[in-house]
Amino acid sequence: MLELGLPDPVRDPDLPARVRIHEVGARDGLQNESSLVPVEVKVEFIARLADAGLRTVEATSFVHPNWVPQLADAEELMPRLAELLARYPGLRLPVLVPNERGLDRALAHHASEVAVFASATDTFARRNLNRSADEAMAMFRPVVERATAAGVPVRGYLSMCFGDPWEGPVPIAQVVRHGLTLLEMGCTELSLGDTIGVATPGQVKALIDEFTRSGVPVDQLAVHFHDTYGQALANTLAALRSGVTVVDASAGGLGGCPYAKSATGNLATEDLVWMLHGLGIETGVDLASLTETSGWMARQLGRPSPSRTVRALLGPTA
Amino acid sequence: MLELGLPDPVRDPDLPARVRIHEVGARDGLQNESSLVPVEVKVEFIARLADAGLRTVEATSFVHPNWVPQLADAEELMPRLAELLARYPGLRLPVLVPNERGLDRALAHHASEVAVFASATDTFARRNLNRSADEAMAMFRPVVERATAAGVPVRGYLSMCFGDPWEGPVPIAQVVRHGLTLLEMGCTELSLGDTIGVATPGQVKALIDEFTRSGVPVDQLAVHFHDTYGQALANTLAALRSGVTVVDASAGGLGGCPYAKSATGNLATEDLVWMLHGLGIETGVDLASLTETSGWMARQLGRPSPSRTVRALLGPTA
User: Model ipTM?
Assistant: First the structure.
């Protein structure tokens, strides 16, 4: 068993006692991988993540196979995951759905939880979804309403909350307006994404505080930070201080935004867990087991993990 | 000129308005480089750092040349730096001195500021200095006293403040005792080092608060974090919240602790400046110019910068 060397935890009374990690490595992390990962490897990856104690593992996306060939095996993957749901009580395996057609496929495969991926800016909405941000919201509304009617909770991702590569800074009022729309149409959780990683802690606090001032309970908010400029963990700390208790992260730091200038992307789950456990914040995650899983996945992909913790614990080529 | 894409700053009233960066790239960053960097390159590096607005640039070490061959050119470097001191008002170019012999050499070359490198743990003191932590303090006392008598201020580095690779967690009382000794013998600034990068924000707050409770003015404290587990910037944020206004960092993330398991080491100055400027905290640093300097230095060393910001702005091979 891997020896961690994590010092004794020291609590900060202003931070939450427990954080739920929304693990995105199997979906967001893999979706931009050019070489196709076999479905057996994906099943084992998700099983190992569950085994390491993660209880929310985003599994795949019912996007059109032409858009994201890496996730074209969603139909094949879903029945393989049913056994995991039985084995790990409390395990949640949400899937992304881009539109009603995607929802139909997800429901046909008994998805118990789905997510939609909206944008706070028009330019990114047009590039990613081929319509304005408002038009994208109109497209998501029947998805959210039908899923909700079917008893399937919906997470709303809101991307480009702090900056957009084409538009630059994004006004808080615009982000809050789109976020409120997602919640009003029935999303049970709103994940605020810094898709290009430009945010710093003051912006994070300002945005979360503006949402709570608008009447959104803080436990409906999640944060999704990218480490493009190394800011993800400092931003997470600011979000926790503002009361957020759901944090998105990607095992081994897999994935990233194809529009960001650097390959560095998602906050690595291991770096997040190191901080949380050091702060005495419960996650339910076994960091040694998670790190070994990311080392194993890095070998499957044939390149080192960008997670600092994974490299520190397994060696720089892990 | 490099376009940064940093969003408009958002201040946090609990954080300081200004931070002084103690730039260690030219000394701590280069000291473990195996291929010798020509003195002309070092002069240009330090000049470019000053030109980017850094005003405390640790320049070299008067350690015995056999110990650190990379810095064996200290005598050659010093006269070349005199012109910089004249060109940039307020520029400080401290140098490390390991013992009295080193101090003699530094004073002979008109060093206006020096630093000693102590350890909070016995094991690291024995490995690094061949004596116990207390014996090392006894060795530093005449160095600090003689420098002070000569009108040369002394910075005290205290390493392994949060964990030691051989001893594990380090008791706060032990760290504070050694830190107070350095201040009591005359050091004007105490840099608290997380040499192996294991700390998390709760530990940082606890240690700084214990120093201030012991009567140390917070403006005598600096922090020196390593990014081994990705924690450096979150820890910096915690230190700023506890009132610290002096932060050590290394341009481009150069250097690291040879005893840490990973090559990842010092907090990159660019990642730090990104956060500080995003928080509206003044540093005097021109981030574009600094980033270009680190890109230039990476080319001199023949390998990419580990700084996330440098890679995001210049491309992953910068």
Answer: 0.95
